[in-house]
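Inputs:
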Amino acid sequence: MATSPKLDAKIPEGPLQEKWTRYRSTVPLVNPANKRNLEIIVVGTGLAGASAAASLAELGYKVKAFCFQDSARRAHSIAAQGGINAAKNYQNDGDSVYRLFYDTIKGGDYRAREANVYRLAEVSANIIDQCVAQGVPFAREYGGYLSNRSFGGTQVQRTFYAAGQTGQQLLLGAYSALMRQVALGQVQMFARHEMLNIVLIDGKARGIIARNLITGELERHFGHAVILASGGYGNVFYLSTNAMGSNATAIWKAHKKGAFFGNPCFTQIHPTCIPVSGDHQSKLTLMSESLRNDGRIWVPKKLEDAKAIREGRLNPNDIKEEDRDYYLERRYPAFGNLVPRDVASRAAKERCDAGYGVNATGEAVFLDFAYNLKYKYGMMEANRLGIKNPTEQQLKELGRPIVEEKYGNLFDMYKQITGVDPYENPMMIYPAVHYTMGGLWVDYNLMTTVPGLYALGEANFSDHGANRLGASALMQGLADGYFIIPYTIGAYLSNEIRTKPISTNHEAFVQAENEVKDQINRLMSIKGKHTVDHFHKRLGKIMWNKCGMSRNAKGLQEAIQEIRSLREEFWKDVKVPGTDKEFNPELEKAGRVADFLELAELMCIDALHRNESCGGHFREEYQTEDGEALRDDANFSYVAAWEFKELGNWELHKEELKFENIKVAQRSYK
Amino acid sequence: MKITLKVWRQKNKQDAGHFETYQLDNVSPDMSFLEMFDVLNEKLISEGKEPVAFDHDCREGICGMCSMYINGRPHGPLRGVTTCQLHMRSFKDGDTIVVEPWRSTAFPVIKDLTVDRSAFDRIIQAGGYISVNTGSARDANNILVPKENADKAFLAAACIGCGACVAACKNASAMLFVAAKVSQFALLPQGQIERKQRVLNMVKKMDEEGFGNCTNTGACEAECPKGISLENIARMNREYICAALTSEK
């Protein structure tokens, strides 16, 4: 297969290990005096957006940053719990840049671009340095050195963390850097603003149309370049671990104006989330992957035990050790409970589909800490204190404070949501939509197929292939923002130093604004019978059932038809209250759901065309005899980049993936 | 469960505002407080009425966006819990619940239960950072931090910037919020260089934004969903006095 001529990834020449170094030494620079005259728009203030906006401002560019929340600090990166990977090898356990690169490529089931992933692994160490310098309070050992823990899909300890709030601490670090630049006048901050369209002039990205969410006014903003760091699109499923406001509108509007969409069907379903409790459910809550360090996942071995637990007749604590099926340890002895997320999620679904689910809905498995609490931590303490032959009760009491210190906030959250105490009873968990590996296609510079338009962080498709490893999202967001875009944007802007700011009275701005006005007017004038959420929930059900943890051709074909008719119904029957010239959260949601209703179709089309299973994309028709994903490297070792033609019509372009530094193999965690 | 809600409705900043009463008949104890508001809004929209505007985003207690004053307490009756993590099982069938926005001059109402907390951003802009440009950092393990200090700094840094401390305070003081940030950096070696100027600038900005003074009541600590300790205020006062007496500016 040959790469489409429309997809030039611009990967630098030379050996993998030298590409980034050579690139940095040869990329054109913009001198400081010219930087002052160049304006950059950054949409989104999560890890990628805030770090990019701050770093670019530090270089001297004039930056305008936008977020829909009331403050840049609220972006959903804040909710990331477990940690951030970096190839520091502080633990002396054999880690290296190559190994992080290798784990990431393998974890992504060989569907990511080598050069990008290697660069990510290379800069990972700098991220930790930067964050520590900012005052991010990472966990420490008694000697004052940084502490690490393990995450799924790896056999080294390379994850840095701040209790179960790593994302919060990293984001507040990036946010503080951003606020510093705001104070210095280098960044103009637009909170409670939502980007609703991109402006192209002579084929280049030159600005955005944003809505002031408080007044409802539409605003035109010029930029020599536009960076989208607006996050992922997991909310297409309605229920996900994303924030309520997380949306695809920025990337979708860009897609409709010419930015190709890469691998839209690659969705990450996270194995350890709190199960759905009822129809009122508005979102799902993740229980950090770090819990799999010490929690063991199981279901009963006997169907009658599972049934008795579901009906409340049996307490799981009373099930004997030999009657428990630690199915991850059984199926994957080498990685056990720390297999990658896609593998763990499918294994949970397999057990529940076979009738072993343990809550009323039949869709839950146990994540149990009792064993490690007593026999790992309790025993450790008993040894330390010189207690001989401790009783079970003693072990429990001794182990608890250690578990509290490691996971206290997560246990509290679990109890708060479910009303069940996880120190006494095993947690119940089930997979839920968490992250989207797909996103706007970008080249090595992180530029989309639209010149001057960049996509960073979860908004792009680049580094995680078909499955992202735990603690790698934070790494990628900050790598893109702190250490990659500040270099790569120079390659473009060095040719723009003669471009004077373009008036926002330019016809292209007027037209882009009119498109937004038209959509808002249409939404306001339907005055139908059903609320936005009504449609969003129905879309979510279609996607979860037919384009979720496992997919098949028939289901996907049905889903495409169902999405189309739901979209039609939405545009006839949605009800948006209030007016567009005021603070109107329902109108905001309506615009986002309108975009999800289009994106969902492309996700299904992509899932249908990819006749293989890889990572999070599991096609039931393509599996090994023991139910593992069966890739088809001969035919599908490529990035699917979709070009928007008109609604319901996309053209597929392929970027061939070449693996020159890694041996492609069936992914095995056994 | 049957729940009666008395909710503050205010069209915009200029409007005087008033309470409206709503009845909900099918509230599940497993619903979060905000999911109950989702149900209320669905009902209001289908009746052709204006839904209640309220801030929320992550719904897992960490973004700090949700901000309801429930039965006279920020984030409701439980300790250590944000509005989004409060569940209806904390209430009884037949309860009447009064819901208001945060009330403080420095947090003007935008609409209904939504307020403007941008004053917090401006306080951070005044000094809530360490001045380090990207790329200047040395190897992370070259900066050693005693575990005890790292842990204390983390506990202070756990502040989510929701503003419950201000809403709880009879003086609408932002001392706990500011003290948490000042403490985080005062406890870490990285924060030493700008230590004095930081506390002076942030306190000055806090006063300019119209927050009240601290009279050591401790309501902020009691209502903080993240358990930020009053110790931080004591530390900030020490930092402030020390900086004011010794600063060379």
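The radius of gyration of chain B is 20 Å. Flag for discussion at group meeting.
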